[in-house]
Amino acid sequence: MNELNATFREKKKSVAFEGMIITSDTEFFERLGWKKGEETPYAVMEFFNRCYEFALQSIGYKGTDKNILSAVIHLDEKTPHLQLYYIPIVDTAKKKVYEKGSDGKVLRNEKGSPIQKKDEHGKSVYEYVSLEQPKLCSSDFWGERGGQLSYGNLQDSFHEQRGVHYGLDRGEVGSNKKHTTKYKWQKAQQEAELAALNDEKVHAESIIQEAETAVETRDKALEELKPLQGYLDAFHEAMSGNLPLSPTKLRKMIVGLTTEYRRLEEEKKITDKDRENLFSELQKAERRIPELEKYKEFVAFVNEYAPDKLDEAKRTATERKNAPKPPFKSKSNGWHK
Length: 337
Hints:
Layout lengths: L17 E6 L2 H6 L10 H18 L8 E7 L6 E6 L2 E8 L29 E11 L1 H6 L6 H12 L20 H58 L7 H41 L1 H17 L1 H16 L15
Antiparallel strand pairs: 1-3, 2-3, 4-5
Helix pairs in contact: 5-6, 5-7, 5-8, 7-8
């Protein structure tokens, strides 16, 4: 700011500097020959150099790098990206336009206040006037670039001037996706993994409970079968001629007993198999308990020393979970404030 002789009006919510991310999906960089951990190919560096040139044209002070604080290519995360920080410097100011009479004087209302000019839609009219010296002002900076349409305009320009030359598609228009810091991303990943481990533990406990219930049912059924053994013994004695039972009654009895016995045997086989599977799931869950405890300690640490960050991550995770899935995978470059 000193080098630019710029002014700055500090307020409670003033913007000191802003950031920008330029990237694409992993497949795009792999097509350019990029492999994580290996030397960066010339094609990737050329892509980012051209992106940086576009950034200078779009947000650089008069097309220069005088307001650029930092521009670094990050290669240590999942996808290469150019991370750029700058101060939003302008040399014009937004000024209200007032209604004037035929004599050229500003018209005033009954209270003596000047009447602001309106457009055909009833919105206040503004104009940009040159300043004696530059100033740092985010609202004027983006107002000069289209106001609420500025980000969309910027993405359209990037696609037309850079994206199409690399076979990239324009991103989803109106998307509200936001870039997150590496710390927040890692924290969200760890919390998601912790939640998954908790779900696994609950699932394993549920399976074990079902297995115990099934075993109890089987044991109860076998217990109820014990009195029938007396009938089977009676059947064998009758066949040997020791008991005076009619053959018709004996046949009916043995058919019923045999059918019930086979059904219970099949049920026992199924229950035993389920129990083996459940025991295997339990062993897997128990092996992951140390990892679960590790993430539990991490979350406790974050909750103690940075509770606001943890709440923020939870809200972000909930919003992502409830957000509707896009109809297709975007392969565009992303510009994010």
